[in-house]
């Protein structure tokens, strides 16, 4: 009984279908859900015996409408420690800023994948997780679509960008691997924008957000009467994207039987909807993304080797932020510039103590978490620059920092010339970084890279081979 009292969720929502879905999702993780359909009932519920046992609130902005921020402020005034997650169809950064200042713990734009919603709820209510400024805001600013907006000079990252820029110009399938938050979606959109298919059909499917029983129909379509409940014909994603690009996010979540069908489609180029007596040819480029290395999953029998081979004509791995620590300074300044352009916010600087603090954290949520932390800090910052005082909970984890104890701030202001101990890096390493930087900057256009570096193409390719930059070859 105590556990039930500790896991009580209030859902402020007037959509019965969404209430059933959220209630079922929360129930799988041990939550009991109570539902109210207007603002007055939400406030009144806080004063009841059941309301005093609440552990979290999920609020759909559609219920209070333009008064959503006022409702959040009222709920937080009555129950300051209660996490509030806001669901909204509004992508305005201004609303995100206002909701956060009113006390929202997280802000999610609909449609939101079920696993992302549940992760946000877990983050908001797990006592062991970092608090306040370390809490990820799931939706913040519109995603940029250009390779030039992907900041960083760390060699593994530049190699990944160079490879992606070159692959973008082709038509082969692409696999992008990397931990959650490393920038896979942004890289996908940049590749599509730079590809010959940029003006054609484009669809992103999050596999984790589709029930296993619906995946076949969602991907390949079905005929009327193909199974009980198939009252109409459904066009699948492959047919919808014919001539264009289909992105399969979290492809590692596909059931094995669907993996078999997908591998066959990618190999033959033919799709057969469920219940159909025929198949048809499609021209679809698939970009698959995975949070886990698929080779490891093949070794354990959880992923088909045939599908891995079919989808990985080009394989790109985005490194975690902890492996590109020196990029944190450049990323911080870039994000602060972008944040400063949003309505309700202003440009901010960042001092050396804050940069040192940011550089001392290992960022399990990667670049997405860094962006969220900076966004939250910028919302509440009263000065002209962020300082270590704007990240109190981060400082609890990293500890107080002193410049003399921690050495120089590890950030990227270009190609690094010095090693951490203050000595010059070998010329070969610096040259390799310059070439990687040029390949990424000129989006893999090797003729332009060679021209800008003042060398011939044959010399450039020889240097790529000598320096072991095979990802850009």
Automatic annotation (TrEMBL):
It comes from the Bacteria. It is found in: Cytoplasm. One of its GO terms (cellular component) is cytoplasm. InterPro entries: AAA+_ATPase, AAA_lid_NorR, CheY-like_superfamily, Homeodomain-like_sf, HTH_Fis, P-loop_NTPase, Sig_transdc_resp-reg_receiver, Sigma_54_int. Keywords: Activator, ATP-binding, Cytoplasm, DNA-binding, Nitrogen fixation, Nucleotide-binding, Phosphoprotein, Repressor, Transcription, Transcription regulation, Two-component regulatory system. Member of the two-component regulatory system NtrB/NtrC, which controls expression of the nitrogen-regulated (ntr) genes in response to nitrogen limitation. Phosphorylated NtrC binds directly to DNA and stimulates the formation of open promoter-sigma54-RNA polymerase complexes. This is DNA-binding transcriptional regulator NtrC. It comes from Aurantiacibacter gangjinensis. The lineage of its organism: Bacteria, Pseudomonadati, Pseudomonadota, Alphaproteobacteria, Sphingomonadales.
